[in-house]
Amino acid sequence: MGWTRRSFVWRMIAVPAAAVLAACSGRSLNDILSRMEATPGDTTTLQTLPPTPACGDDDDDLTIAQTEGPYYTPNTPERTSLLEPGITGTRLLVTGTVLSTGCTPIARALVDFWHCDDAGVYDNVGYKLRGHQFTDDAGRYSLETIVPGVYPGRTRHIHVKVQAPNQPVLTTQLYFPGEPANARDGIYNPALEMALQDSAEGQLGTFNFVLPV
After folding, report:
1. What are phi and psi of 115, to 5 degrees?
2. Which residue range(s) make up the domain with 188?
3. What crossing angle do the helices spanning 5-25 and 29-38 adopt, rounded to 10°?
4. Distance (Å, rounded) from C-alpha 189 to C-alpha 133?
5. How many domains, the chain?
6. Residue 127 belongs to a domain with what CATH number?
7. Is the pTM of this model over 0.90?
8. Predicted confidence (pLDDT) per residue in 100-118, tens digit
């Protein structure tokens, strides 16, 4: 199902904030989004957000590094949406924050994504479903893309490189919960699963990266 420009722009603003509020309040992301959608012009909910994500005992664990794989391409275009004409598949919006081990958001961190299309094929000639961006002043990123397909030997996944300014690059992968192939994939790690929820427009995923900074 397609997204309207208005609904997508609103979600680009609301979802990162709602994800933080959900973590702090214990309510589900869908519950918070539904309340905000009922009155999209009301900023009361947004104004109650803390300036940084609330962190528990396990939230400062470093994000696990994983193999780059054979299909990485450098010098990708800077963009927050990988959607373009000809790309088909279930819409996916991935949001989150890049944090230090002290749970401090990292501004201007590089986040570079790449993955296969819905048929399990990578573009190794151009930059289809490839792109990088930089986190905002609150350390947040937001990626509009599609749910990648699967291919023999791997489960569904998204490749990522994350780098705090003037620091080493973390290379890793993000996974989808409940995938049948997760148990058979020798690289899969449950610690790298996104929190995933369905929405009317597609799927909403969240993941916070923690770097050794």
Report:
1. -165, 170
2. 55-211
3. 130
4. 25
5. 1
6. 2.60.130.10
7. no
8. 999 999 999 999 999 999 9
